[in-house]
Specification:
There is one protein chain. The protein is of the alpha+beta class. It has one domain: Sandwich (Immunoglobulin-like). Helices cover 19% and strands 40% of the residues. The chain has three helices and eleven strands; from the N terminus they run βββββββαββαββα.
Length: 154
């Protein structure tokens, strides 16, 4: 459990710029942060080809080895919103290969939440769970806060 990831880079995708890190030695785990046009902040974790995500246990994010965000919160909130109002926008989507979740409301005046922690932190760890009951912790240095600010339009 534990691996080091490559540096961050930015790339346009579907009209949005992503803040991305990829890890080749586990078959291509990809982590991306982006801000949608409605200003909300999202994280996307794409599974390596070597395993499938456990749909009942989404990834957990740690910044500087401190618990920061559990994508189960996005999943539970999205499930509740959909139950109460089937027309409400989803805040979580996940399958065997990819998990996408809302991690920030997008209003700096109301607090930066996990985005502030990312900007101030030095290391991001993402703990992933597989269908084979394996746990992996992937680590990457947060060495380019200016790029993250640019991508998140801060």
């Amino acid at each position: 459990m534990g691996s080091t990831m490559s540096s961050w880079f930015s790339t346009p995708m579907s009209g949005e710029t992503l803040f991305i890190s990829q890890h080749e030695s586990l078959g291509g785990l990809t982590i991306a942060f982006h801000r949608k046009q409605n200003n909300t902040g999202w994280v996307m974790v794409s599974a390596p080809t070597t395993y499938a995500f456990d749909q009942y246990r989404p990834p957990v994010l740690f910044i500087d080895d401190a618990y920061s965000f559990d994508l189960m919160i996005s999943k539970a909130g999205s499930d509740l919103d959909q139950e109460l109002d089937p027309d409400s926008p989803a805040t979580y989507s996940g399958d065997d290969e990819m998990v996408i979740g809302l991690v920030w409301h997008g209003i700096p005046a109301q607090g930066m939440g996990i985005v502030g922690k990312l900007l101030d932190g030095s290391q991001l760890s993402i703990q992933t769970y597989t269908k084979r009951f394996e746990v992996f912790r992937h680590q990457v240095a947060l060495d380019d806060p200016d790029l993250l600010r640019q991508v998140l339009r801060l």
